[in-house]
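Lab meeting tomorrow. Look over both lines:
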Amino acid sequence: MEQTKRIGLVLGGGGARGLAHLGALGALEERGLRPDAIAGASIGGVIGAMYSSGMDAGAIIRAFRELHQFELLDVGAKGGLIGGRRIAKKLSEYVRGSFEDLEVPLKVTAVDVQSGELVILGSGPLVPALLATSALPGILSPAEHMGRHFLDGGLLNNLPVDVIRTMTYSPVVAVDVSAPPNRRLDFESHGVVRTIKKITRRDFRNLTMELFMKSFDIPQALLTRVRLSMVPPHVLIRPRLEADFGIEDFHRLDEAVDAGYQAAITSLAELAG
């Protein structure tokens, strides 16, 4: 193990693609790189909270490996197909009660449904904030927190490098796991649609769901490029995940972890010395 070096860590959103964060975390640990602050969006915020709660990369990998996806799903409300009650219960098994209890300072992004405002959450109860940052529009129900309704932070800030800059002066390492905006649509796939049908027994056409996700990816990628041009990280890690790796493909854990590890090994050479 090399001598510990402090970094600011940014973990982006991307659904199951965010499992690649775990491989990147493993590479950081091997090289003695320890976050002194973490900023995240969506799944990046969730994994950041688990890490900040004292779990290392291996422990988080084991938690996801033991996870049965369908046990997290329930019928949603207020515009969401899937509710968050079971997700909240499972999260509480792995994360601390509040931001103030965390070993590493953490902030996550979310979007206020009513005002359209980007909100940075970094204090108070942790689980409601994690539901807020990961409430993918139309899929997960808006999360109620602090008297407001929130949607996925990735809508407006999916890779919050600007947020981490307010938290630490250490070199910034950012991990971007978002889907490529130029990916070709597979209108015959049954990933998200099949999952929703089993849980809700509602009939959705694949075309509608695929177009919905693509319409989310395109502006998200544009916003991320603009933000990174203004506030770039010292190291940007982009795991080479296949374009067909969907937000629901949690069964592809090993593939994602390996991609995250390999990308981090290559990119972290920039911090050598």
In short: Confidence is low (pLDDT under 50) at residues 199-205. The two ends are 14 Å apart (CA to CA). The chain is about 35% helix and 15% strand. Residues 206-230 form the longest helix (25 residues).
